[in-house]
Amino acid sequence: MINNTPVRAYSGSSHGLFISFEGIDGSGKSTQTKLLKERYPDAILTREPGGSAGAEEIRALLLTGDPDRWSAETEILLFTAARRDHLETTIIPALAAGKTIICDRFADSTRVYQGATRGTLRGAVDTLHDVMIGREPDLTFIIDMDPTVALSRGLARRSGEDRFEDMGLEFQETLRHGFLVLARDNPGRCVLIDGNRNPIEMAAEIALHVSNRMFAT
Ligand code: ADP
Ligand code: TYD
């Protein structure tokens, strides 16, 4: 029998600060999330796809293997399934307990990687987000970088999880543009960070925004 109970998206009635980091591959997100965690040792450092046991299993499906392994539609469903599990089991309980969440990628990555690179699917990404996720970070740092530089940084640390990094420079340029549009359209939530700088200088700027936001809430 079909269960007709409506699916509940999350409303956001929580207390900790939810911070995400976004940007193209190799832009320095992991570096900056770790530096922020050093400043806030009680915060929960997490990532997408992944961040919970179930979502880490889905991560392995998404990031390894042939670039054409999944159709675009299936890929959106897998990223959203991983996010829902991450939200239910890691993010919402931590925020409710008053913890700060530092998340390496969140829904903006799906909007840009799956939505902006395949224009016709952006509506599907947004609809699925509204129904299944319904929660935005309080603060999103979008690290902006020249993809040529970011790709050359990435080459030094290849892990086998490279379905998206294998898609080349033109793809990364499209992503960069998609993230810039998101930052422009969401000025209350998104802060654009110039990634072509010393990591310590970037971390100081990020920390200032975080403490201002914590003070404001
Ligand atoms: P991402 O998580 O966005 O893929 P990483 O933080 O893993 O990026 O950084 C990619 C590579 O670039 C790593 O080798 C890292 O040490 C290096 N890196 C990170 N930030 C900077 C920076 N501001 N300047 C130069 N190199 C950097
Ligand atoms: P990750 O190792 O986090 O990337 P990075 O190179 O930035 O350290 O791998 C995540 C990959 O998955 C990355 O290439 C972006 C992609 N991705 C999407 O395509 N859609 C999404 O919704 C998310 C969260 C990630």
Summarize the structure.
This protein is 51% helix and 12% strand.
Can you put this structure into words, describing what you see?
The chain contains eight helices and five strands. With 217 residues, it is an alpha/beta fold. The longest helix is centred in the middle third of the chain and has 25 residues, at 72-96. The termini are far apart. The mean pLDDT is 90. The structure holds adenosine-5'-diphosphate and thymidine-5'-diphosphate. Adenosine-5'-diphosphate (ADP) binds next to helix 1, helix 6 and helix 8. Adenosine-5'-diphosphate binds at residues 23, 25-31, 153-154, 156-157, 197, 199, 202.
- The CATH topology annotation reads as Rossmann fold
Helix-and-strand structural type: alpha/beta
Could you say what the CATH architecture is? Answer: 3-Layer(aba) Sandwich
Question: How would the global form be characterised?
Answer: globular
Strand arrangement, largest sheet? 2-3-1-4-5
CATH class: Alpha Beta
Task: Give the SSE string.
Answer: EHEHHEHHEHHEH
Distance between the termini: 45 Å
Sequence stretches where pLDDT stays below 50 over 5 or more residues: none
Give the percentage of residues in beta strands. Answer: 5-15%
Ions and ligands = adenosine-5'-diphosphate, thymidine-5'-diphosphate
- Helix share, percent: 40-55%
| CATH superfamily grouping | P-loop containing nucleotide triphosphate hydrolases
Q: Average pLDDT, to the nearest integer? A: 90
Return the domain count: 1
The total strand number stands at: 5
Task: Specify Rg, calculated over alpha carbons.
Answer: 17 Å
Major sheet summary line: 5 strands, parallel
Number of distinct helices? 8
